[in-house]
């Protein structure tokens, strides 16, 4: 199973999502420090909200197989900048939480995540469990294991280590044709 690193504002739903992914009942718990569980790293929202703590997010990202930006569907703004995927060498996914909120604006949040560089976006509700299984299925796959030589060759070609080289080349060719 891939190790997941969750980043997002306070009350975005990181801890609730962690509880659901672990099969626990939902209960309020304010994350005071970065929890590095066996398969999920849950960070305090203040790390995403404060520039001085942002470096901590970058450091913890190297302990994970997949990074996830969490933004609640009812957020009025995003704390993540455009193209923020460039600070890491891990896959970056987006998780839109609270999709069941009466104030949800999923298309707007989806655009924020696409602008931030998320390769894949999951829409979930920790209360109704909608979308949770798709996220679990994604995380079930083992991370790609490469030899040093394979990693160097992919780096030389500009191919992210977690992407299929043939698929990556097709996508890049399609972008250049457009």
From TrEMBL:
- Indicate the transmembrane segments per the record: none
Extract one GO molecular function annotation from the record.
Answer: ATP binding
Q: Which Pfam families match?
A: PduV-EutP
Tell me which domain of life the UniProt entry assigns to the organism this sequence originates from: Bacteria
For this chain's UniProt record, which GO biological process terms are given? biogenic amine metabolic process
Indicate what this protein is called per its UniProt record: EutP/PduV family microcompartment system protein
Species the sequence originates in: Candidatus Intestinimonas merdavium
């Amino acid at each position: 199973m891939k190790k997941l690193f969750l980043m997002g504002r306070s009350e975005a739903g990181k801890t609730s999502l962690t509880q659901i992914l672990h099969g626990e009942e939902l209960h309020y718990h304010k994350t005071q420090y970065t929890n590095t569980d066996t398969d999920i790293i849950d960070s305090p929202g203040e790390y995403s909200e404060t520039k001085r703590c942002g470096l901590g997010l970058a450091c913890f990202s190297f302990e994970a197989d997949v990074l996830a930006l969490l933004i609640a569907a009812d957020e009025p703004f995003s704390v993540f900048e455009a193209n923020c995927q460039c600070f890491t060498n891990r896959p970056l996914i987006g998780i839109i939480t609270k999709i069941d909120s009466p104030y949800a604006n999923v298309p707007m949040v989806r655009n924020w995540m696409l602008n931030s560089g998320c390769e894949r976006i999951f829409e979930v509700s920790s209360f109704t469990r909608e979308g949770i299984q798709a996220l679990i299925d994604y995380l079930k796959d083992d991370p790609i294991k490469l030899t040093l030589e394979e990693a160097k060759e992919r780096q030389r070609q500009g191919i992210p280590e977690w992407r299929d080289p043939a698929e990556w080349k097709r996508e890049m060719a399609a972008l250049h044709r457009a």
